[in-house]
Every structure is written in C-alpha cells, then in structure tokens.
Amino acid sequence: MPTSHRTPAAVCRFMTERICCMVMRINIDCNGCYRKVRRALLDMKELETHLIEKKQCRVSVCGRFVPRDVAIKIRKKTNRRVEILEIQEFSINDEQTHEEKPLMITSNTWNLETKPILKPV
To answer: Which GO terms describe its molecular function (predicted)?
Structure first.
C-alpha cells in the first residue's frame, strides 16, 4: 500500500539534493517587526541567505529547506501572517541549472543572482 507522505529519510534526502529559493509576503510595519523577522531568519540554520525588503513587505530566502516548514517556523516565531508568493527549486545534480540559467528574482528594487556580477572600478 503506497503512502502519500514522506518518511524522515526521504525528507533528509530531499533537503540535501535540492536548493530552494522562496519569496514570502510578511507584513513589516515597524522596526520591531523587522527585527523579529530578521532574528527568526538568523536562527534558522537551514537558510543560507535571506533578503528583507521592508517597504515591499517581502522576504526572500535561499537554502536547503522544505518551504512549508520554513514558513511555519517564521509564523510561529514572529506571530505574523506569512504568505508564500513564489518557490523555486534547483537540483544540485542538474548541471544545466548552474551553467546556463542564473536565478533571477526581480522586483522594483533588487536582483538576486547565483553568479556574482563584477563591475569594473
């Protein structure tokens, strides 16, 4: 009989094989809310990078994690509503992802790319 849920071993394998980037909407009204969200993100060891856009009320995170679990943890730690806007998953074994297409998440104010851009001085 097949089961529809993942076993702990399958979840661990999923986390080590995939890199996820997730964009969330979190209402950040004041500096206190900003500090709450920032502290919650810094305490999560599975996150490699994060970006908080205070004016747009958006938070972007990248790392090896299960997106739903991260959103739930942020909700519990900050007591703020968390809305997942976009999730992108990348396989480590997939060479095409790293060579041909850099990750571009665009908004009005920033770009997040996997490859650094060097500008001459």
So the answer is: metal ion binding
CATH class belonging to 11-112:
alpha beta
What sign does the CA torsion over 102, 106, 109, 112 have?
Answer: negative
Taking only the tens place, the pLDDT of each residue in 31-63 is 999 999 999 999 999 999 999 999 999 999 999
- Domain assignments of the chain as residue spans, ordered by start: 11-112
Residue partners of 59: CB distance under 8 A and separation at least 6: 23, 24, 25, 26, 37, 41, 50, 51, 52, 53, 74
pTM (two decimals):
0.63
**107 DSSP assignment:** -
Query: pLDDT digits over 2-19, tens only?
Result: 555 555 555 555 555 679
The closest of 62, 111, 116 to 89, measured between CA atoms, is 62
